[in-house]
Amino acid sequence: MPSFRVATPDHSYSAIVERDVIRHIAQHLPKQTGKVFVISTEEVWRYQGEVLARGLEGIAHEVLYLPGGEDQKRMAPLEKLADEMVQRGADRTSMVVAFGGGIVNDMAGFLAAIFMRGIPVVQVPTTLLAQVDAAIGGKTGVNLVSGKNLVGSFHQPLAVLIDPSVLETLPDREYRSGLYEIIKAGIIREPELFEYLARHSEDVLNRKPEAVDRIIAESVRMKAEVVSSDEREGDLRRILNFGHTFGHALEAETSYTRFLHGEAVEWGMRAAVYLSQLTGHLSAEDAVEILETLQLYGPIPPLDGLSAANLFARLVHDKKTVRGKVHFILAVKIGEVTVVSGIDDRLVREAIDSALV
Ligand SMILES: NC(=O)c1ccc[n+]([C@@H]2O[C@H](COP(=O)([O-])OP(=O)(O)OC[C@H]3O[C@@H](n4cnc5c(N)ncnc54)[C@H](O)[C@@H]3O)[C@@H](O)[C@H]2O)c1
Ligand SMILES: [Zn+2]
User: For 34-48, 283-297, 313-327, which range has the lowest pLDDT when averaged over its residues?
Assistant: First the structure.
C-alpha cells in the first residue's frame, strides 16, 4: 500500500493510494471522533456512494450534498450546508469526509476550515484530477464573482484516501483532463513518470489498473514532496503551476465553460514549451518529445475563434502576477523546470500564437 507523508508546519498526514481503500475507510478515521459528515454531490453519491456507505457501517454519520459545478463553487451553498450540519447535530467534535471531485474537496475542505472555527477533514477524492492534485496540499476555497478561488484557507486534512477503483465510472473526458496534470508532474520533476506516460499511453488510456495505480502513486508522491518542503506558494510549490499561467488565461477567456481545467493546462503546457524553446531554455528535441506525448492523450476541444491578443491580456492580469511581473515556469529539460520573470512580451505573444495553431 503506497502511503506518502505530507509534512507541513501545522501537522503531518498520510496520502494513501490503495484500491478499495474506501471500503476500509473506518480504519483510517480517528477512533475518538464525533459524528462524521460526508459531504458529496448527488451525482458522485449515485456512482460511488454505496461502497463508501458500506465502509462507514457502524459509524455515526450523515451524508449531505453540495450542488456541484464550477458556477456553484460559492459561499452561498456552504452557508446552507453549515446550517444543515448544525440541525443534524454537528459540533466541535464532528468531522468532515469530503467525497467528490476537486470542487467538493475545495468546498468541503473550506467548510471544515471555518465550521466552528475549524473541524477536521478527511479528503476522499473521486476524480483523477482531485486524486493527484486538488485533495493534497491543504488549499481550500470557493470562487467569487470577481474570480476563481479568491476566498479560501489552508486547511490540511487528517488524511487523504485515494482509491483508484472509483475512477471506473469517471467519464473519459474527465479522466483525460486528470492525465494532463500527471504529464505535468512528469515534466516538472519526474522524468521516469514522463517516460512511462510516453511509452504506455494505451494502457493508461484503457485504464489498466497497474498503469493507473502506478501513475497516481508517482504523482501523489511528487505532490506530497513538494508540499512538504513548501506548504505555501514559495518557489518550489510554484513549479506545480507549469502550464497554468497560460491555462488560466484560456479558462478565463472562455468563461470556464469550454475547457476542463486539465484541458486548459494541456494547452498552457504547449504554450510554455514554445516559450521555453524561444527563450533558449529547452532543446528542440525535448520540446518535440513533450508535444508528441501530449498529443497521445488528446485532443482537447477545438481552439477556434480564440484571440491571441485577448489571451495575452488575460495572462498579464493573472493573480499569480507578482509585483507587476509575470512569472513563467519554463522547462529546462524533461523532469526539470525553472521560474523566470521579465520575459519580452513579444516572445510570450509568439508562444501563444504557436500554441493556438
Ligand atoms: N485545491 C487545490 O490545490 C486544487 C488543485 C487543482 C484543482 N482544484 C479545483 O478542483 C476543481 C476541479 O476539480 P475536478 O476536475 O475534479 O472537477 P469536479 O469536482 O467538477 O468533478 C468533475 C465531474 O466528475 C464527476 N465525478 C466525480 N467523481 C466521479 C466518479 N468517480 N465517477 C463519475 N463521475 C464523477 C462530478 O460529478 C463532476 O461532474 C476546480 O474548482 C479547481 O479549482 C483545486
Ligand atoms: Zn491544475
Answer: 313-327
Cell numbers 481552439 label which residue? Answer: 303
pLDDT at 323: 62
For 17-50, the pLDDT digits (tens) are 999 999 999 999 998 889 999 999 999 999 999 9
340/333 Cα distance (integer angstroms): 15
260 CA to centre of ligand 1 in angstroms = 9
Q: What mean pLDDT do residues 3-20 have? A: 93
Cα–Cα distance, 347 to 327 (Å, whole number): 14
pTM for this entry: 0.96
Atom of ligand 1 nearest to the CA of 139: 1
Q: What is the DSSP string of 23-37?
A: GGGGGGS-SS---EE
Given ligand 1 and candidates 105, 126, 127, 143, which is best to mutate, with the most ligand atoms within 8 Å of its CB?
A: 127
Looking at this protein, which amino acid is placed at residue 245? T
- pLDDT tens digit string along 207-259? 999 999 999 999 999 999 999 987 666 778 899 999 999 999 999 999 999 99
Measured from the Cα of 104, ligand 1's closest atom is: 19
All cell numbers assigned to 256:
470556464
Whether omega before 171 lies within 30 degrees of 0, making that bond cis, reads no
Q: Which three cell numbers stand for residue 344?
A: 519580452
Output the pLDDT for position 241: 94
Q: Which residues are CB-contacts of 113 (< 8 A; sequence separation ≥ 6)?
A: 121, 140, 153, 154, 155
Nearest atom in ligand 1 to the alpha carbon of residue 181 is 6
Q: DSSP strand E in 18-72: where? A: 36-41, 61-66
List, chain by chain if needed, residues with CB within 6 Å of any ligand 1 atom: 41, 43-44, 47-48, 68, 70, 73, 100-104, 106, 126-127, 129-130, 133-134, 137, 139, 149, 166, 169-170, 174, 261
